[in-house]
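Continuing the batch. This is chain 6 of the set; chains 1 through 5 are on the previous pages. Same settings as before, nothing changed between runs. Recording input and output for traceability.
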Amino acid sequence: MTIAFSAISCLCAYFIITKLFYNLENQLYEKCRIEALTGARSMGEIMHFMIKNNMLTEADIFDVNYVEIPGSNPPKYHTRYDRLFDAWIQNIEDQFLSDTDIEFAVLMDKNGYVPTHNSKYSKPQTNNYARDIIYSRSKRKFIVYEGIKKILNYRGDDARRVLYRRDTGETLWNIGTPVRLYGRQWGSFIIGVNLERINTIKNQMLVLIIIALSVILVLTNLIILAIIPRKYLPIRNRPGQNN
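Output for chain 6:
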């Protein structure tokens, strides 16, 4: 009976933990999904504004003639529009980082090119590769990473979530939404979601549930062991009975 009760308790705890973790992840996803949709819409509107006000032509914005920046490692590229994007969209991208769950928020073209990264990741290259791979990420191409390809290949109207193993070692969620211009897919607005906070909460919840379950199991087993033997002992063997 004790074993059966323990098994049932563990099974119930498993379903409770699974449900709690699902709800926690879903809340994080829904929040960041809305932010990705907002970012994609904002980027599309800015590009429309630039064309309408003769700051760039449609051909300029769809330019894929990537001109490598001499001496850059990893390679970086200029296009006809990237310098103007630095002035206009970086501040908007940076605003998304006020959410502490967001590691980065960038506009990326269909070939994985990031014309303008967040300011914290747009430092000048220093010839220190280990440092530059972290802090000098603007104007690079990221198409080689599966977590990027899957986002850029998405053609829907919502957002897509993909697990992304970044070249700096972190594992993030990439949540991306297509950015379209004049009916053509320009690229995607991608949010990198840091999972550290949610994993910490999960671990804390798991520890608390295990402790609570252990206490319940110990107390229940003690009660069972105290009651069951007395109930089922033969009358002649019960304490206080004469043979």
